[in-house]
Amino acid sequence: MRKVYLDNAATTALSPRVLEKMTPYLTGIYGNASSPHSFGQAARAGVEHAREQVAKAINAEPGEIVFTGCGTESDDTVLFGAAERYAKKGDHIITTNVEHHAILHACAALEKRGLRVTYLPVDKDGLITPEQVRDAITDKTILVSVMAANNEIGTIMPIKEIASVCHERGVLFHTDAVQAIGHIPIDVKAMGIDMLSMSAHKFHGPKGVGVLYERKGIRLPSYIIGGEQEKGRRAGTENVAGIVGLGEAIELATANMEETSKRMIMLRDKLIAGIEASIPEVKLNGHRTKRLPNNVNFSIKYIEGESILLMLDMNGIAASSGSACTSGSLDPSHVLLALGLTHEVAHGSVRLTLGDDTTEEDIDYVLDVLPKVAHRLRAMSPICPAGVK
Ligand code: PLP
Fold first, then answer.
1. pLDDT at 383
2. Phi first, then psi: what are they for 195, rounded to 5°?
3. How many angstroms is it from 377 CA to the middle of ligand 1?
4. CA of residue 105 to ligand 1 center, whole Å
């Protein structure tokens, strides 16, 4: 059976070129990057090269790059760090109601500690406006955190304009760019980004390694308490092979971004058009054009996302659902509900996210299988009106 992996927003395959660069650091170059001897210094050289690769990819300085354990850790470092560091200035944070749980659950934890958080509501496409941010800022606002692109619906936020509003009021701006890096150009200087989170496994790098970009002059406390690694900004022995892999992966992703994203947009739009042409009563979730090149998210009315996923999986296709049933809760995704979808429609959602290795044949295969799956499930659905197939 054909195997088609369309869950690249969850994680991507490790690029063979990245693995090749990592392998020496998993074998011969095993020194601790903080050790002064030659074994350690060989590892240190790998880490510092990766720091330069990351800095170049986002137009930062190497000294502004902190390696972390994942995107979640980078997000948490910013939120908890800002709350602690700027406690004297204020107690108010602004974010959106469609952020990843790495942001939302950290904000909820901060609220329990007495901070105030404004969750800006998105419009029907999943966007907020800079004016909403401007209106929400108060003298007590210490941080605005808005994701660069949404992990479920792929919507791309107006980050540069939001950053500019924050700076008018002297407020720091953080963006969770975990889904954006490698897909859309990110220039921290040109966009006015003060802090940014990324994660290697979303752009064909290894799992378990992330980056926090902190603009020069900002120095948040380390979230992981311990040794003096990363110049005291993140304790813990460096994941040298992971860091080397992240550096190589971001270099590859940004070097080929224009070409890859053109190809992905072509495949994405073919998939969107094909689904709309072959399945009646579907709704594309997220903005039609202001969306990541690799993201397709549809609600297929009258059927369950989980059943769609199971049947796709039986046909060799890996996708993801907008609903959180798999994580033990029957609540539909907070992102889809934030768009104004009813529970019923949100439950029938499926996310298909392309990777560098997705081919046109993969898309053709999905366009052959998905309409049949929808048709079969609708035939069994007690809520599907007669005549809708
Ligand atoms: N932020 C966003 C937007 C994400 O999509 C994810 C992962 O899905 C994360 C944060 C968390 O990243 P990590 O898996 O590296 O902790």
1. 86
2. -145, 145
3. 31
4. 13
Instruction: Kindly indicate the confidence band of residue 323, based on its pLDDT and cuts at 50, 70 and 90.
Output: low
- The protein residue whose alpha carbon is closest to atom 5 in ligand 1 is 151
pLDDT of residue 329: 63
d(CA 214, CA 45): 21
User: Which pLDDT score is estimated for 386?
Assistant: 83
Question: Over the chain, what is the mean pLDDT?
Answer: 96
Which residues, in sequence order, are CB contacts of 303 under 8 Å at separation 6+?
348, 374, 377, 378, 381, 384
Q: In the prediction, which pLDDT does 320 show? A: 95
The predicted model scores a pTM of 0.97
Q: Which residues contact 183 (CB under 8 A, 6 or more apart)?
A: 149, 203, 253, 257, 261, 264, 292, 293, 294
Dump pLDDT digits (tens) for 246-271: 999 999 999 989 999 999 999 999 99
Is 325 annotated in the active site?
yes
List 70, 107, 166, 325, catalytic entry: 325
Q: How many CB atoms lie within 10 A of CB 251?
A: 20
Apex 366 CA angle, 360 and 367, nearest 5? 90
Q: Which residues have CB under 8 Å from 288's CB, separation 6+? A: 125, 272
- For strands 317-318 and 172-176, give the pairing: unpaired
Of 316, 304, 313, which Cα lies nearest the Cα of 378?
304
- Ligand 1 mean position to 74 CA, how many Å? 10
4 phi and psi angles, rounded to 5 deg: -130, 120
Cβ(178) to ligand 1 under 6 A?
A: yes
Lowest-pLDDT choice from 179-183, 283-287, 377-381: 377-381
Count of all residues that appear for the chain in the document = 389
pLDDT of residue 354 exceeding 70, the answer is yes
DSSP-based three-state secondary structure for 189: helix
Which string of b and e fits 164-195 if b means at least 16 CB within 10 Å?
A: bbbeeeebbbbbbbbbbbbbbebebeebbbbb
Q: Is the minimum distance from the CB of 77 to ligand 1 under 6 angstroms?
A: no
Query: CA-to-CA distance for 157 and 178, rounded, in angstroms?
Result: 13
Mean pLDDT check: name the lowest of 126-140, 316-330, 335-349: 316-330
The set of residues, in sequence order, having a beta carbon less than 8 Å from that of 344 and lying 6+ positions away, is 301, 383
Name residue, tokens 């975990």.
178
Which residues, in sequence order, are CB contacts of 380 under 8 Å at separation 6+? none
